[in-house]
Amino acid sequence: MDIPYDSSAPVRAGIPEHGRVPKYYAVKAKIVPLLDELGEGGTLPTERDLAVRFEVSRETVRQALRELVLEGRLRRAGRGTVVAGPKLAQPLSLASYTEGVRKQGRVPGRHLIGLERHPCPERLAGELAVERGTPVWHMERVLLADDERVGIESTYIAVERVPDLERDFDPDSSFYGYLSERVGIRFGDADERLETVLATPREALLVGTSPALPMLLIHRLSRDTEGRPLERVRSLYRGDRFSFTTHLGDGN
């Protein structure tokens, strides 16, 4: 017998080998077609209405909805629940956040949380190849896509590399564009590490999401075209709104 294949679905569509499907998962499977009917931004019926329709308890419906929210298929809006749009597929490359979001027809934006100078701690000094105590900028911004808060970005860079950052840089614009066009610094390469984490209460508040929502965390150390360390970036993205893509090839 041929096995149905859907690249967007989990293996065997989530059905365990013993064939017994949890009640909440059966309800979830019935809700999914409803999302396609409603379309992006459509308001889902209430938990009570769904419980009556599918003849299950409200807690069963609530568990099904929780999973759909975590998967990014639904989002909370006030006291209701609406159908979410597709996730942003950000490339793992030297391209900036701005470029990646624009390519998907969305409007990128940022909201400055803080821009401060600090003496560089020992570990960061080793990564940026500067002396401990050297002044570094720490810039923290909320990332936006069509005015929706989708992540937080923290950037560390030596003050000597961008001494006029506080005066010349528009925090709502691309930092990569500023370095290239205003400062004349070109990116050469970078090392990245991607992991899943839970947001701290502060981060969840800034992004406007639940602390229980899985987040995608990227650590990046960038270098200029001469191989000199340039910036250390910690980017936290909402797991329900982002996915990441990369191209793999034969390394030979």
Provide tags for this entry.
single chain, 252 residues, alpha+beta, Arc Repressor Mutant, subunit A, Chorismate lyase, 2 domains, six-stranded antiparallel sheet, 28% helix, elongated, disordered N terminus
Overall description:
It is a single chain. The chain is an alpha+beta fold. It has two domains: 11-83, Arc Repressor Mutant, subunit A (Orthogonal Bundle), CATH 1.10.10; 88-245, Chorismate lyase (3-Layer(aba) Sandwich). Helices cover 28% and strands 33% of the residues. The chain has eight helices and ten strands. Strands 4-5-6-9-8-7 form a six-stranded antiparallel sheet. The chain has a two-stranded antiparallel sheet with strand order 1-2. A two-stranded parallel sheet has the order 3-10. α1 crosses α3 (58-70) and α2 (47-54) packs across α3. The protein is elongated, with a radius of gyration of 22 Å. Residues 21-86 form the HTH gntR-type domain. It comes from Streptomyces daliensis. Pfam families: GntR, UTRA. GO terms for molecular function: DNA binding; DNA-binding transcription factor activity. This is GntR family transcriptional regulator.
Largest sheet: 6 strands, antiparallel
Distance between the termini: 39 Å
If you compute it from the alpha carbons, what radius of gyration comes out, rounded to the nearest whole angstrom?
Answer: 22 Å
Name of the CATH architecture of the largest domain: 3-Layer(aba) Sandwich
- Which CATH class of the largest domain? Alpha Beta
Proportion in β-strands: 25-35%
Side-by-side strand order of the widest sheet: 4-5-6-9-8-7
State the share of residues found in helices, binned by percent: 25-40%
